[in-house]
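Much of what follows relies on a compact textual record of a protein's fold. A record is reproduced here so that you can trace the correspondence yourselves:

. . .
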Amino acid sequence: MIVNEKPKIAVVIPCYNVRKHILDVVAAIGPEVFRIYVVDDCCPYGSGSFLKENTHDERVVVIRHDRNRGVGAAVMTGYQAAIDERMEVIVKIDGDGQMDPSLIAEFVLPIIEKEADYTKGNRFFNLESVKSMPKIRLFGNAILSFMTKLSSGYWNLFDPTNGYTAIHADVAKHLPFSKISKRYFFETDMLFRLNTLRAVVLDVPMVAKYADEVSGLKISKIAAEFMVKHLKNFLKRLFYNYYLRDLSLASIELPIGLVLLTFGAIFGGYHWINSASANSVTSSGTVMLAALPVLMGIQFILAFLGHDISSVPTRPISRSLQVRALCHKMDDDCMLKGK
């Protein structure tokens, strides 16, 4: 039991090429879960139908996509089904057996206790367990984590592509489902969308299992796409948080820093090339005129980053959303009584 009053917890499992593992995954989900939404994303092996024919768990609801839409789209379908049935917390796990369903309570607890709006797994918390992780995943996650910190604004998080997550249903209602990335970028895109809502996100330590599962993610194919999407999200986040919604000293520090750094780099590079071509020594005044803007620009950019890091959301929005919904309900009841 997580709390005295049982929350309605739902689990969403996107299914594609997981027929070999899906029965074991569903069987391992504990009684604290009220509903299990299995979204068959047009799996060529019919994972959804296979599960429906071989399980007697009354909590299971199988939803089928008529075409393959991507893991992000499958999760959004599950989210919407959970919202329609008035679930309180929605947990997402994969159907390939990498994620331990016994950890569901640990992901849900911070949300139920109003400490977070969204929780996600972190496979890097325990240094001993990291040794078992494939080296290519270690390297890729380190790079992706830094890029995600920049684009999402959640500097306190790591392991951004981790798909073991939980979200408060009231927060999920406010997500723009149609705009969230439908395929492999959706975990990091979710973080960007959550930041625009100022939702509190926490990491939950976990250990991933790697066995005979087949991954459709090819780093060489998605590297450039991820970089472009991270840059877009970073620029949108800057505009939303520092110019559209609010103006602060950080709103000035970043553009000034970039202008100074760019000017110093171009000015210094131009004179360095000219001096090298003419085989002459650049004057100390020219060197200072190039170095000073570079140093000042770096200082301004670091000041902006310091402000950005300190601006990570810390106050859960799920409580205020519930209060707002309650106020609307009371207003509607009063209007009905007045009539």
Summary: The chain has two domains: 9-229, 247-339. The chain has twelve helices and seven strands. The domain at 9-229 is CATH 3.90.550.10 (Spore Coat Polysaccharide Biosynthesis Protein SpsA; Chain A). Residues 238 and 244 are 9 Å apart (CA to CA).
